[in-house]
Fold these 2 entries.
Entry 1:
Amino acid sequence: MRCAVPPVASLGVTDKKLPLRATLAASVSRTAAALSRATGRGDGSVIGGKLGMMIDPDLLAHLADGRRIALVSGTNGKTTTTRFTAAAVGVLGEVATNSFGANMPTGHTSALARAGSTPFAVLEVDEHYLAQVIKATSPRVVALLNLSRDQLDRAKEVAMMAQLWRDALAAHPDVHVVANADDPMVVYAAAAHAAGSARGLPSGSVAVAVSGPAPEALTSTGTGALQALDEAAPADPTPSDAAAALADVDLTASDAAAPADGDPTATAAADSAGATGPVADLGAAAAGLPGAVAVAETPFGRAPIARATGGVTWFSAGQRWRDDAHVCPACGAHIEREDDGDNWWCTSCDLRRPTPDWTIDGSYVLDPAGARHQLKLQLPGKVNIGNAATALAVASRFGVAPADAAPKLAEVASVAGRYAQVQRDGRNIRLLLAKNPASWLEAFEMAEDAPTLLSINARDPDGFDTSWLFDVDFAPLRGRQVVITGDRAYDLAVRLQVNEVPFSHVRSFSEALAAVPAGPLEVIANYTAFQDIRAELDRVV
Amino acid sequence: LSNALQIVWVYPDLLSTYGDRGNMLILAHRAKQRGIPVETIEVRSDQALPTGDIYLIGGGEDGPQALAAQRLNADRGLHRAVDNRAVIFAVCAGYQLVGTSFFAKGVQCAGLELVDLYSDRGPTRAVGELAGEMDPELGLPTLTGFENHGGRTHLGPGVKPLARVTTGVGNDGVGEGVWSGSIVGTYSHGPALSRNPGLADLLLRWATGEERLADIDDQWPTRLRGERLAAVGQG
């Protein structure tokens, strides 16, 4: 479906403080977003930002200026944690947020333009874009949730992602980091940042980087691997002809698939170019920064280590999926784990689980002072208690007391359709999004013992490689009525057959509804399959 | 369990990036369907490799791949397995490992030298559907899989590719994978054996010495194959 954008009527609306070009860009952005929603093509969370950034490439920085901002990134849980954090910070004042999961810079631009002037912003950030968005928005706080395999055909290797995060933080030593102590990849990314603070890993940055017998093959520079990953990247993802794009915009392609507002392979090129950047940038920036800048030999090459002033708050929320962190990201040795607990440590170097400041115990969150805060969330599962704890930790950096924020978290009933409950034809349908092995484990923990519809696609935002289905153990579904659908239902069928989970296959959501009795129906779907079903249910939010 | 077919999954802690567990699960499932007792053994990289009938080596990131090569060369268990004519099925990074050398993080690393082949870096990363006509001697239908690798693999004289590429890149745009004695290597994920049940059964026949195996319910793998091959215009 193609849709011509008419002359923009709202150009007269001005935003105080914004440069003229940014004002025009923000206005076009809002109008396009409104059109996208009005025509039913999407949430409007991507297209508006796309157009605005064509007019003013620095629009995001302009829109971020003057706001106190928190960024939330990680493989899983970032949309929900962003929603919780926005609710918690909302105790203090108005919060701009990208609540529809559009988590690349166009989505951030759109969200800030739409919100107008707000004192706060809480933005979900795709993990590949974190460096870019930190640079553009100068956040006070960055929350790092977890890193695991996702979109196998094009996502960066997990350890490389951790290194890119580490580099991104090194270039911004004044940012405060709220990080997951249970995930070795996240701890590696944040450990250097803790160096200047009292908590976490004392002198962790340099010690972690230089100690330990790194295998010889690992001591080479990381540049080759980065290039290898970036080989397929197109040269320039930026549309050059903004006028043509304005006149003839394909809203369906860009907007229906909210998170894919850029080509992730294209960002790889940008990241790669930036990979050598921080060394030079940091040198230039160092003069104005408190604390020294050093360059340490790491297993991944020479990395800039800035003396962090921002510090780290560690949280522990439990981590069910552990298969991407058997090998230490710092030195390549084995990570050992406590059998029945969250503790872990590298068998060779100093990387180990930091003592968490925030922890959870059942439905309670324990703050750094040891006070217990009971959460009465509507969202299911232990994973959401963890997301809520993270949100409380971030909000407390803005001065929000956990006791004030907790009731706000309890008001969240669904997040961009996730966890939403919908009545249709006598079926009480609950929607769960599960897009990679780690999130499938979490979905099974949340799902009730009820008929279950599984839907799998492998379109662009999902990743094209479905091999990960074999990393998920579907055994928890044995004994339930299982119905499968989606573009790649046959991949799932083979997986379930090998897993000895009986199932039936249907070709549509309506067939699936007809196949199950009245009563509860759990729907677990990956990204675009989830959006398809959400569209069938009138874009439930 | 000494009579059971022993399937050894090599280093899942290092080489299990692309659903590689699937190949083990599928072999075990297909053997059990024929009443063949199976024992699956997952061997971490800090453990010694035991003797077994089928060894599976999966895909992995550059660092873990290099580490796996060092440990397997020190362990020598795979070398003994080849001497004992065990079956080896190696995918992607694992496939590159069985050769003489490969590149990880821009550095040339020593392989296991189990097959006369080596890998270097290609001009582009090969990502997408992969299909090819199997070597006629194997008597198997079209290979289908999904590839994602930056390396190119070059076979020595007297070593045959597993398939002739019709879609995708494989080793070098012409040949895909290798077979040599009872060693099969491939760039196919999927996992490979989910889309190629005939290849799974070939490995089982080699390992058991059975001339043929009883038919089992393959309606879902058959539909999956049909759909994936149709998607690349080879339906």
Entry 2:
Amino acid sequence: VSTPVSDAARDLAASRAKAPHPSMFLRMLIRAAILRRGRAASALFAMTVAAAVATAMLNLYVDVQAKLQREFRNYGANIILVGKNGASLPADTLAKVDATLAGRGIAAPFGMIVARMSDGQPIVVAGTDFDRVQKLDRWWSVNRWPSAAQQALIGVRAMPVVAPNGAPFALTFQGRTLHLAPVGTVQTGAAEDSRIYLSLSDFANWAQVEPQTIEIAANGSVADIDGIMGQIAEAIPSADVRPVRQIMEGEARVLGKTRATLLAAAALIILTAALCVLSTLMGWVFDRRRDFAIMKALGASGRLLNGFFAAEAAALGALGALIGFLAGIGIAAWIGRVNFHAAVVPRFSVLPIVLAGSIAVTLVSAVLPISLLRRVQPAVILRGE
Amino acid sequence: MFVRLVYESFRRQKRRKLLAGLAITLGVTVATAMIAVATDIGDKINRELRTIGANLVVTPQEDSLDVEIGGVNLKPPTDGAFLNEADLPKILGIFWHNNITAFSPMLYANARLEHGARQVDMVPLVGTYFAKRIIYGTESLTTGVRSTYPAWKVDGAWPGDDSADVVVGAPLAEKLALQPGDHITISLANSTAPARDVRVSGILPEGEDDAHVYLPLAIVQQMLGHPGAVRRILVSALTKPEDAFGRRDPKSMSGAIYDRWYCTPYPAAIALQLTEAIPHSHAEQIRQVAQNEGAVLTRIEGLIFLITLAALFAAALAVSAAMATAIFERRAEVGLMKALGAGKLAVAAVFFAEAALLALLGGLAGFGIGSLLARQIGRSIFASQISISPVLLPVILAIAIIVTFAGSAAAIRRAVGLDPVFALRGEL
């Protein structure tokens, strides 16, 4: 049965049905936040701290791999390229390696021969690119790097034999003699200590041998490095490409364990923070059981009440998550600067996770007490029992 | 009366007390677990880093220069000086012997390998231990290349230290068409020693050290005619990252400072102790390994330390929040107490006593659960125990009480300041 209604009356009914409710709803939300500033602020504070801690932990978790991989690159080469059967590498090999790496690492060539000193003793003489070695083998303890032609870097164990007084010395290889001035010593605790290092041009002119080895420190995960190895093997078919297994395995193990520890710590911390939010918020909502009872007594439906408290919680969660996200990125960046001496890149991909998590936690902590209160008669609450 | 008040409060408000206690327990659990992990992480990561290989090397003091290219030593194998194998167990007698995780003696020779009609010349042989039990006094250690290079995995089986078995690198095995179980003949270059027949027990996959043949030390000593000779010793030690103090020259230090340096497991200090322990030797750090692991360790320890701070902060906050809520809910009670004439001090004392009791109970439970949690983390991540020293218990309890007090303080102050009339009417 339809009742005839005038246009004006229908409009009024429609505007009453729609307009006041949203504005009333908003007003209730805003007044609730303003009137109980203290408790709302403490709930927001708890949410912000939790979101900040979660953001910082997730950001660090994502970033720590890159940071530690960078530390591990200081171990030097993780890929070694050698000519098949000890043969020299073609002259354009280094250029090809550089092109293949395309900034994903650094490579240094090494040519090695056994020369004779003036007293006939054999000694290993290596030619290399000092600029590249400085970047690749950072653990070399060198007091002064050669900078001009005919200057040599001498291993600490070779030094007393080769140039006891720091005087120039001569080396012979296949009947050709080279005069060198010792400018610095290198100490590594390994085979380098018994060698003499020359610049690549001196070495090539004198020994007429091209480098046989290129050491490569490639950046990235194990899969990245495997990929780079494949590309290099394809680009330079005349060479053997070998992984430095200990370093790759050590790196993988340390990275894996560190990330697992970090994940465990992150889980614990985020759980604690979430519980902190939960207890604060539940207290806040319980505290407002009078508001709840009055609204119910005035005839608010269960859905409206749920919606009101849920909207309030979600707004708090979202606001807390946003402020917390910014603070968390700040904390992660600070930890990056203090500990790794490099900025931790803000990962905005973390934001949706933090946002969703925050809203979920706040919703749970609002809906739980409400569902408890809904079973209680408003009169009982209003009487303060 | 005071005791009864506290007792009744616990008896009658089981749910609330349980919630607050739960928050404290959780906070202390997280704090205990994180502190335990943070204090142990350096040692755990240090052990993982040992995968990369030895960080110290011991060589004869008066040695001739090595002529080594690509891991192959071209120096005549009998040239220069040797260390004595009989001195090896003395490594277990140094001050930091507990930090020595493994060591391997190395003796090098070059040989011709024959398998059927195939042969390869100038193959570097390395005589070493694989997993030999070394005893020095009451100390013992099973050590060898299997421990100094845990990353090495052989295809087949590792040789025994008293066997005539060898491990061959993969490229060599390919050239000689070797399978595990095949027999090969080894004859030294430039030597009149008789050739030896050995069994290939395993094949070492391609990698940095795949050009060699590894065999028991005694066989190489015998072939070279140098019984008891060792060319160098590779030592894996757990070390403390070198700091400014660790880098100082020990010769420039005076008595007490030198003692402090000597008794810190810096790579250089352990090297010095090895030099002292083994006659006519010189020990040195392998900088590629020793220096870099210091950097990696410092970073990871720093990271975990900062995260532990974050965890402690989060735990403190959770405890404070729970306490604040618990006290806030009891305004009416405070009003009643004050209406009956209780002073501010008496009210505060009751709350603080309750907080202390809760902190103690929650702290004890949290410490227990946290220890179990740390142990679980140790077992699942590092496959080894993370143990917590009981010394931590009073520290943790003290922290729990302080945090609980701090968390309650603001709420208690507000509760005490309430006007009993408003509090009783529930108008706050």
